[in-house]
Amino acid sequence: MSDVFSSLVGQVGVVNALRRYAEQPSHAYLFTGPPGAGKLEAAVAFAAALECPDHGCGTCDECTRVLRGSHPDVSIVARAGVQWSVDEIREAERVARRRPLHQGHQILILPSIELSTNAAPALLKTLEEPPRRTIFILLADELPEHLVTIESRCVEVNFHSLSTEDILLVLEREGVPAVQARTSAEASAGNLDRARLLANDPQLADRLAAWRRLPEMLTSNSPASLATSTLAALEGAVEPLKARHAEELDQFKTEAEGPGRRRVGGVKEVELRHQREQRRFRTDELRFGLAALTRTYRERMISSLEGVADGDARGRTDARSAIACIEAIASSSDALSLNANESLLLTNLFTQLSRL
Ligand SMILES: [Zn+2]
Question: What Pfam families does UniProt report for this protein, alphabetically (predicted)?
């Protein structure tokens, strides 16, 4: 079936549900799931399906306008600061009360609604007294406590992380060359936004090659020195993100100090968000490296087992040692989610690997 949802990848359950909801819409939806899972793309497609007389044919005037971002009754509401402000939610409510210009609904899409600690009561009030022809689509990467009541007023739609193959499909469709697309997809941790960032990162292939070479390097270098060089490469990888954050912070400060501007959220909050994003980037990057390392050992294991079949006596021992290495990497990867010290973690892992 070719319709407005056809271009969404990897969310079959979500798409089936949205096709059903489009025929008998409710007044508020909450799309939840990890960053880069395609929530915004899905929200726009859903909005088109809601406006379309055929529930999302993908070709009529209503569908085309929504997908192009030029439908007068569909708004993606943006916020200025780190958090949604009460004023911004009130402004959204004002738009929500407008009569739709076309035959369909007045639709408001609000991204990152988890960032609404102070504005949540205003948002809740809006959802409790919904104008008849208005539909809210709220998006959230996570569900903090202040969203629980809001959640109970919405139909919830859960997104999961995309698979490597799904992301590869999107990148290739967007014209990223095959090898770069494959590497970026594998390094993306199921996050399409990260994959798009990596697809434009010229150093990615070098970092991947360094991880793949590591077992060989361990025979002639100390684990501590390899941990140091791996961390230096990680610093290099996070550099573009840091530069972007520095720019964003400068702009935020200028805007907050400008005449007639009201401060929306503090500098401290921006810095905290940046720290969170950088930490997430580092963890994803290390996970990607460990996955590449695992692949190297898996290849070793397979070729050792082939050796056994050919009568090589050492093959069995080599395969066993490769399996032990894969297990050691897996437990380091688990430890990453517990905020382990990166330097210590890598030194320990590399020491183990050099002994196995
Ligand atoms: Zn249509």
Answer: DNA_pol3_delta2
Give distance in angstroms: CA of 68 to centre of ligand 1.
Answer: 13
Q: How far is the CA of 17 from the centre of ligand 1 (A)?
A: 18
Res. 194: pLDDT tops 90: no
Q: Find out if CATH 3.40.50.300 is the number for domain 12-158.
A: yes
* Ligand 1 geometric centre to CA of 73 (Å): 15
Ligand 1 centre from 64 Cα, in Å? 7
Which residues keep their CB under 5 angstroms from ion ligand 1? 52, 57, 60, 63
222-272 pLDDT, tens digit per residue, is 999 999 999 999 998 888 889 888 988 888 787 666 554 444 457 777 787
Distance 65 CA to ligand 1 centre (A): 9
Asked if residue 136 lies in contact with residue 27, where contact means CB atoms within 8 angstroms, the answer is: yes
How would you classify residue 318: left for phi > 0, otherwise alpha for psi between -120 and 50, otherwise beta? Answer: alpha
Distances in Å between the Cα of 75 and the Cα atoms of 58, 63, 69 are: 18, 14, 8
Q: Could you give the angle at the alpha carbon of 269 between the alpha carbons of 264 and 274, nearest 5°?
A: 120
- What pLDDT is stored for residue 257 in this prediction? 67
Q: What is the pLDDT of residue 274?
A: 85
Residue boundaries of the structural domains of the chain: 12-158, 163-176+183-200, 202-355
